[in-house]
Amino acid sequence: MPKFSHLLTTRFGNAVAVNMWNPYTWKPAPAQAGIIPPRLKGAKRWQWGAAPKDGFHVLRHTYASIMLEAGESVVTLARWLGHSSPAVTLGYYAHFMPEAGSKGRNAIDGLLGSSADQCASRNSPDSPQG
């Protein structure tokens, strides 16, 4: 695995501990913007009513889904995310690939010269289904 830099670090250059970042830095920002509910009165500083899905990790999912929708390779994305295999990546993000298969269809259409007016309808005498 190639060496990488952390997006967020402590003042000493170490990785930020997610159990500190989420409740003390991340969640106050979307709460102040009205995106997630504010912390309940009397709750400890680390206690939030917002679901875990509203944590900082959501940015990782956002990044991955944008990359797949833009047509990035699942193999490449799996490597970037540190997944053990592309199958893991597909398990999480396949639903973000609505155009999956369109490149293959377009390639075959181009090879065969297919267009809508050349296709025989199902009930046409030219159709193999007759």
Structural class based on helices, strands and sheet pairing = mainly alpha
What is the CA-based Rg, rounded? 23 Å
Give the number of DSSP strands. Answer: 0
Largest sheet: none
Low-confidence stretches: none
GO molecular function: DNA binding
InterPro entries: DNA_brk_join_enz, Integrase-like_cat_sf, Integrase_catalytic
Protein name: Tyr recombinase domain-containing protein
Organism: Streptomyces aurantiogriseus
Explain how this protein is built:
Among the domains are: 40 residues, no CATH class; 48 residues. It is built from six helices and no strands. Helix 4 crosses helix 5. The mean pLDDT is 78.
Task: List its salient traits.
single chain; 130 residues; mainly alpha; 6 helices
Give a quick summary of the entry.
It holds the Pfam family Phage_integrase. One of its GO terms (molecular function) is DNA binding. The chain has 130 residues and is an all-alpha fold.
